[in-house]
Design a protein that fits this description.
The mean pLDDT is 90. This protein has one domain (6-138). The chain has a six-stranded mixed β-sheet, covered by helices on one side. By secondary structure, it is α+β, with helices and mostly antiparallel strands. The termini are far apart. Helix content is 26%, strand content 21%. The chain contains three helices and six strands; from the N terminus they run ααβββββαβ.
């Protein structure tokens, strides 16, 4: 895959998922790209999931939000979510930093006023402005990965 561009590699990673999850991942990514047109996309094809972080630079510590693709769902992770006001209670999680939003109802939830407000707060929390050149950067590709398509329970 090294001869492919980073964007082509990312498209290939997404294509490994079921058609429904892949479509949701593409839509969520497109919505994030529209909201953050100058963001650097940091891609991690990890053991458990595909992570697409959005930040102002190639430094992972500066990313503010990620699209995380699992075999059965897609989530949006707010990397400083524990510090964001969430009066509507849309975020889940109890860690010291990250809060997430599972896109069970589809990517349209990203257009709701509550999520738009969270995005605005997350961007205000960023240390660096998103004023660079948009690009995709492949940060890591795990040698071993869980299956990217949901496995049906064994029938007995």
């Amino acid at each position: 895959m090294k001869d492919k561009s980073a964007a082509q590699q990312l498209a290939g990673f997404i294509a490994r998922y079921s058609p429904e999850i892949a479509a949701l991942a593409r839509t969520a990514r497109a919505k994030m790209r529209k909201r953050l047109p100058r963001a650097v996309e940091l891609v991690y094809d990890n053991y458990n999931a595909l992570v697409i972080g959005f930040g102002p630079s190639e430094r992972p510590s500066e990313a503010v939000v990620s699209v995380v693709v699992y075999p059965r769902w897609v989530s949006i992770c707010f990397l400083q979510g524990a510090h964001l006001p969430d009066p509507e209670g849309v975020l889940t999680g109890s860690g010291t930093q990250v809060r997430s939003l599972r896109l069970d109802a589809g990517a349209a939830v990203l257009d709701t006023p509550a999520v738009r407000a969270l995005m605005k707060e997350a961007l205000a929390f960023a240390d660096e402005p998103f004023d660079g050149k948009a690009r995709v950067v492949i940060r890591s590709i795990s040698a071993k990965r869980r299956p990217r398509r949901a496995v049906s329970p064994a029938r007995g």
